[in-house]
Amino acid sequence: MSTENFIITKRDGSQESFSLEKIKSAILKAFSNVSEHISAEQLGKIVDPLMFCNGMSVEDIQNQVEIALMAEQYYAVAKSYMLYRQRHNEDREVRDHLDFLVQYC
Questions:
Q1: Could you tell me which of 22, 24, 27 has the C-alpha nearest to residue 10?
Q2: Do 86 and 62 form a contact (C-beta atoms < 8 A)?
Q3: CA separation (Å) from 48 to 13, 42, 61?
Q4: Residue 86, C-beta contacts closer than 8 angstroms, at least 6 positions apart
């Protein structure tokens, strides 16, 4: 399936062009984080079943990646990926609170 013309919806509601390379990069970082090697063939087995549609959210894509990692039994990598997402979510919440406080003052 060609994905070069898809648009994704980011968390802030803005939209940008879909990039399969960003997804692959995030998966590779998760593997690296647990010091595990992945071949191009293994990466393909994770990415190939992912389903994309125009306008889908970053969250939906990331949820699919988690499921795909677990389906291929990369549980430690999936955990690393989930923890990374959680840390970034917490960082966004703190940033939003700080922004609110700065604007309030």
A1: 22
A2: no
A3: 27, 10, 13
A4: none
Nearest 10 degrees: Cα torsion 4, 25, 85, 45: 80
DSSP 38: -
Tens of pLDDT along 24-59?
999 999 999 999 999 999 999 999 999 999 999 999
pLDDT above 70 covers what percent of the chain? 96
Containing H/E element for 56? Answer: none
User: Which residue type is seen at 54?
Assistant: N
d(CA 21, CA 97): 32
Terminal CA-CA length for the chain: 50
Q: Which residues contact 43 (CB under 8 A, 6 or more apart)?
A: 24, 27, 28
| Token reading at 14 | 């803005």
Q: At what angle do helices 58-71 and 75-104 cross, to 10 degrees?
A: 160
